[in-house]
């Protein structure tokens, strides 16, 4: 069965391969940004003491 847009119907919650790849990419980017934030938090107080 197809949706009105012509794409195949999926079960609720199922992700396409492209969506899984994007989710993995976004999770990796989020993890890297969180690490950067933690590093900056550690560096920031020491740089204010100078």
What do these coordinates show?
This protein is mainly α and 50 residues long. The protein has one helix spanning 17-48. It has one domain (15-50). It has one helix and no strands. The protein is rod-shaped.
Layout: helices, strands, pairs:
Layout: H1 17-48
- Low-pLDDT runs: none
Give me the strand/helix succession.
H
Structural class: mainly alpha
Biggest sheet overview: none
DSSP, total strands? 0
| End-to-end separation | 67 Å
Radius of gyration: 20 Å
The shape is rod-shaped
| Overall pLDDT confidence | 83
Strand content: under 5%
Can you give keywords for this protein?
50 residues, mainly alpha, 0% strand, rod-shaped
Quick structural summary:
Helices cover 64% and strands 0% of the residues.
